Amino acid sequence: MTFDKQTRREFSLRSAQALSAGSVVNALAVAARAEDHPPKPAKTFRLWATSDAHVGTDLRHHKRESLADAIRQSERGGDQGGPPFEWDVALHLGDSSGNQGSPKDDEGQEVVRQFGAARQHVREQFYNLAGNHDATFADEETQWWFRKWLDPTGENTKYSGVDAKNRPYPVEGTWERYTFRVGNLLFAMMSDRNDIGPPVGRGARGGYPAGAVTGETFAWWKSLVRKNSESIIISAHHHMLKETTVASGEWEGFKKTKDGKWQSNYHGYFPQGGPQGASYLYWIDDKPDAQAFETYLTENPGAIDLWLGAHTHTNPDDRKGGRGHVERKWEVNFANISALTKCHGHGHSTPMSRLFTFTEGSNQVRVQCYLHTSQFQPQGWYVNAECVIDLGKPFRMVV
Questions:
Q1: Is the residue at 34 inside a domain?
Q2: Which residues neighbour 141 within 8 Å (Cβ) at sequence distance 6 or greater?
Q3: 125 near 184, Cβ under 8 Å?
Q4: What is the average per-residue pLDDT within 329-346?
Q5: pLDDT for residue 322 is more than 50
Q6: What are 250's strand-pairing partners?
């Protein structure tokens, strides 16, 4: 059979049209299959970091439930327009108490009651540390109040309501220092030791603000870091390390009067209590300005991925000392979480918390700031304080 030129042209045109139509049909079929089987969203782990509820202070001054309000807002939204948000695990990094002396049972009972505001989460999803205001006096049973009412290891379930068997991620260690794991995240939780007694800890007038740990805790942390280089290590203490975030340098907790004398500002001024270190982790045992953690990280940059602390209450835009709330030093990310309280802190306190979202397979973490009142900006997410931090390795939910 032979074809004339016109027939060949018509044949070519018809072939092209058929091929084009087939491509469209095939593309539509692929799209339909994609709609039937959409790609699964990447797995995420959402860490809600809180601190410094100072429950007794807010309740006493304004009948405000600093801890319970934040929990209700996270689950159901706030009464000033703040949206609810999802989270998997929450940290409270110390200063549950607002007491200037040794905390008492009535405040412990109130803390437990306010944890009971949760409806979509259980008590065991909250992991706690002791801050300087949670400490008991040196002549009392060591840190009895924190151990009884906050109880991270679940040894006093009758009082705290914490049952170790219900932890989503089991705790290993003691009330003073413990770990838990989420995939390849390793949390190293260290409580403050303001109970040691003057000049390190509580004096006759109340708690000294400078941070403290024991030499045993530092040795534990150093060993943990050395043995877990394959993990994403998140260290947590009530205090920040020296000169890492807002107002964490020497004497930055105070201001001077017109005649050149120091007075309280971010922190209470106690001349006998290592005041130059009031804003950071200052003591190891009785050694002032020890800087053991800082020296280790200087010599081993990137040894951990994130240090979470609190203690200095201020608004999210404050840059005292030329540093903000989230900074990077020694190839480590540092985040000051403070604070949930509105009433404790010489007028600086702006109730807020942070949400860290870890995504499967990514080494980047989204950090969001939630304002729990509208005193600084409208209640809810404060976009100006949002950022992304880099980890040393990708997050893995299953290892």
A1: no
A2: none
A3: no
A4: 94
A5: yes
A6: none
Residue 42 is predicted with a pLDDT of 77
CA angle, residues 62, 68, 74, in degrees to nearest 5: 125
What letter does residue 395 receive in the DSSP assignment? Answer: B
Q: What is the pLDDT of residues 46-82, one digit of tens each?
A: 999 999 999 999 999 989 999 999 999 999 999 999 9
Number of domains in the chain: 1
Tell me the C-alpha to C-alpha distance, in Å, between residue 361 and each of 26, 183, 195, 391, 393. Answer: 32, 11, 42, 11, 9
Task: Quick: pLDDT tens for 102-161.
Answer: 999 999 999 999 999 999 999 999 999 999 999 999 999 999 999 999 999 999 999 999
The two tokens of residue 315 are: 């608004």
With beta carbons less than 8 A apart as the criterion, state whether 133 and 95 touch: yes
Where do we find the tokens 């942070």?
Answer: 354
pLDDT tens, residue by residue, 289-320: 999 999 999 999 999 999 999 999 999 999 99
Q: Which letter does DSSP use for residue 227 in this model? A: H
User: DSSP string of 154-211?
Assistant: -S-HHHH---GGG-SS--EE-SSEEEEEETTEEEEEE---TTS-TTTS-BTTB---SE
Contact in structure between 45 and 183 (CB atoms under 8 Å): yes
Q: Could you count the other beta carbons within 10 Å of the beta carbon of residue 29?
A: 10
DSSP notation for 322-376: G--SEEEETTEEEEE---S-SSSSTT----EEEEEEEEBT-SEEEEEEEESSSSS
Positive or negative CA dihedral for 129, 133, 137, 138?
Answer: positive
Distance from C-alpha of 161 to C-alpha of 171, rounded to nearest angstrom:
15
CATH number at residue 276: 3.60.21.10
Record the pTM.
Answer: 0.89
In a domain? residue 164: yes
For residue 83, tell me if it sits in a domain. yes
Q: 87 with 48: CB under 8 angstroms?
A: yes
What pLDDT, on a 0 to 100 scale, did the predictor assign at position 18?
46
Closest by Cα among 153, 180, 184, 176 to 168? 180
Q: The tokens 């999210």 sit on which residue?
A: 316
Quote the domain boundaries for residue 115: 46-390
Q: Does 165 or 23 have the greater pLDDT score?
A: 165
Which residue has tokens 């009972």? Answer: 109
Cβ-contact 274, 210 below 8 angstroms: yes
- For residue 156, being part of any structural domain is answered with yes
